Amino acid sequence: MSSVSAAGSAGLAESPRGGSGGGTTPSPARRGRSTGAGPLPYVLVAPVIVFIAGLAFVPAVFTIVQSFFTVNALDPPTRFSGLRNFRALAESDAIRSSLANTALYVVVGVVLSTVLGIVMAILLQRPFRGRSLVIAVLILPWALPGVVEGILWSGIFDPNAGLVSAVMNDVGLGGGHLLLGENRVLTIVLIELVQVWQITPLSVLLVLAALQLIPDELYEAAQIDGCSRWGAIRQITLPLARPGIAVCMVQALVATLNVFDQPYVLNGAAATGATVTMQTYFVSFQNLDFGQGYALSLFITVLTLVGSLVIVKAVYRKVEL
Amino acid sequence: MGAGRGTGTTRRRALQLVAGASLSALLLAGCGGGGGGGQAGGGSTQTSGVTITVALAADPPPKAALDDFTKQTGITVNWVNIDWDSLQTKISAAATAKTYFADATDVDWSRVGQLGKLGWFYPMGDYLDVESMKADMPQLASFTSDGKVVGIPYDASFMVTTYNKKLFDAAGVTKEPTTMDEYTAALQKVKAKGDVEHPLDIPFAASEGLSTYWYETTGAFGGSVLDESGKPQFTDPGSPGYKAAQWMVDAMKNGLVPPGNINVTDSQGQQTLMAKGEVASIFSDYSGTVGTLYDLPDQSSVKGQVRYLATPGVTGPTANLSNPDGVGIPKEAKYPQAAAKFIEWFTSEQQQVDFAGVNGPEKAFTAFPIPSRLSAVEKMTASGNLVYGDQLSTMLEGSKPVFPGGAPTWYPQFSNAVYTNLHAAATGSMSVDDAIKAMGDTATKLSSGQ
User: Is B285 within a domain?
Assistant: First the structure.
C-alpha cells in the first residue's frame, strides 16, 4: 500500500508546500466581507504589528546596520568600518572552532530530538490509562531553565563525585574516565544529550499534535489491506506527520544553533565545547566589542534562516485532511 | 437616513481607531517601561526617604542590619542577589544602553581597569574620604585606576595556600614547606604514602578560577604575569609565569592532581575534594575557607585538619595576591548620594565586625569571608571569631595586587585566553609551550592596542 493510495482512499491530499491545494483564493463573498469590515482588521492587528516591529524588526535592522560599524566601548567613537567586523570574525580561531562545535551540536541535537520525538509521539498516539500524566511528566525537562539543567547535570557528570563516575567505577570501567573537556566529540555529544533531554518534549508535542489529526479510518483501512503496524507507520504516520516533523526539526535547529547554557555550565569556556553563541557573549560582554557581537549575531541569524529553509524545503509537505 | 448611516459609520470607525490606538499605546508603554525614571546620568542628591537598589552576587545581610540602616538614614535598601556572571553582563548592558539598573553594585578587582577607562562608575573620592580609608584597607589599591577609586572593597578576599595537616603528618612531612621545591616534594610524599591518590587540587576547568590559580603560582615562582604597562612577562621558558604553567600541567601529568580535575572549578574543588579529604592541598585557595568550609561538620569531613600555609616561594614564603570584591556607584544610579551613604555604612569597621559574626550570629552576613578593614580583622582575631586569624591578618597586610599596574582594561579577554589555553594544555590537546605562546600573543596584541 502506498501513501498515495492511503491518502487517496480517505480523500486526503499531500501536496508540496505552496501548491494549489485549493481554498486559497477568496470567494467573491469573502472578498466582499473583507471589504465591508473596513479598517477594523487593520486596527485590531495594529498592536501586534507594533509589538513585532518593536521587538523583532527594529532590533533586527539595528543589528544589521551596526554590524558594519565599530561599536566598542573601549574604542570610541562608533564609526563605519565596512566588513572589518566580519573579517575579524573570519580570522578568529576561536570563532572558527566554535562554528565547527556548533555544527556538531546541531547534527546530534536535531537528529536525536527528532527521532526521539517521533518515536515517543507514536507511543503516545493511542489513548491509554495515565497518558495525560505521562505527557505532563514528559514536559518537565522542557520547563526547566537551561542553566538549572546544566547545574543538575554537572553534578551527574562531576568526574570526582558524580553519578556517571560512580556507576562507571561500580561496573569496573574506572571512575572519572568519562570526562567532559578531554575529547571534543565526546564532550559535545555528552553536552548535547543534556540539551536533547530538554528539547525533546517539545518535539514530542509537535509531532503528537500532527498525529492527532490523522483519522483512525486510515489505519483501519490499512489494516484491512493487510498492512503491518510498521507499514502503517511508514506509509501513513510519517508522511502525514511531515508538517509536524518539519516544525519539530526547525525548533531543534534553532535551539541547538543557539545553545549556550548547557555547554557554558558544564564545560566552561573550553574550546572543546564552546559554541558560536558563547563567542557572541564573550565578544560582546567580555571584550565589549558590540560591533563584532552584532556581526556574529547576524551571521547566526542567517545560518538559522538558511537551515530552517533547507529543512522546510526537504521535510515539509502540505497535508490536507 | 443616509446621513444617519454616515454618522454611525464614522462614529464606529472612530471608536475602532481609538480602540486600536489605545491598545498600541498600551503596548508601547509596556515596551518602554525600562527607562529608569529619566534620572539616567546625574541622579538625585536626595538621601532621605528614598529606596536604593543594591545589586550584588550575594544573599542580603541580616534584615535587622538593613532596617537599622534605614532607621539611621531614611534610606531603604532593595537588595538584589544576581549571580556574578549575570551581574557583570547587566553592568555592561546597562552602562552601554545608559539605563538604570542599580544604585550600588559589584566592582570586581579584575574589571577595575576596564571600568576606570570606561567611566561607568562614579569616582568614590567624590563621595567618600577614600584617603582616610587607605591605611585600614590595604586592598583599596586594587580598586584604583588612573588615581581614581572606582569601588570600595567590602571583603578582603586573597589567595592562600591550604593543606591537610593530618595527611601531611601521616606522610612524614613534619616541617611546613616554605619553597616551591619543598612543597612539591611534600606533595609527592603524600602521594607515595597513599592515603590520597592525588594530593593536589588545581581547578583546570576553563573558568576564571584557573587564571587566578596561575597568577598566584606565578607569584610563588617569583614574578608577575604582566608588567606595569601590561606587557606579558611569561613567554620566556625561564620566566616565573612559564615555570608556573609548566608546574601546574606537570602536576596533572605526574598524578599529583586528580585526572577529573580538567573539568573541576575552584569552588567544586574546595567542596568536593578538599572538604572531603580527597586531596591534601590547594595551592591557591580562598582566604577564610578553613573557618567557612573546612571546619564546618555539615559540609566537611576534615574538620580541624586543614591549615593555612604561608604561601611557598622561590627561597621562602611569598606575598599573597588579592582578589577582593568591591562595591561602587554606576553613573546611571538614581540616588548616588544615598548609595554612597550605604557604601560608607556597608564598609564601616563596626558593620564589618557585625557581619563577621563577632557580635553574634544574628548579625553575621553569610556571604562575608574576611573584612576588608584591618581593624575589623584584628577585632575578629581578638574575639576568636576568625580561625587562624593572626596568620590571615599577617597575610592580608602583606598581600599585593595581581597586576603591578592594576588590572588592564582588556583583562576579561586576557583571562579568557589564559584559562582556555591552560585548560587545553592540561587536557593534552596542546603543549605548555603552545599555550603560553597563545596567551602571550593575546596579551601582546591587547596591550599594544590592536
Answer: yes
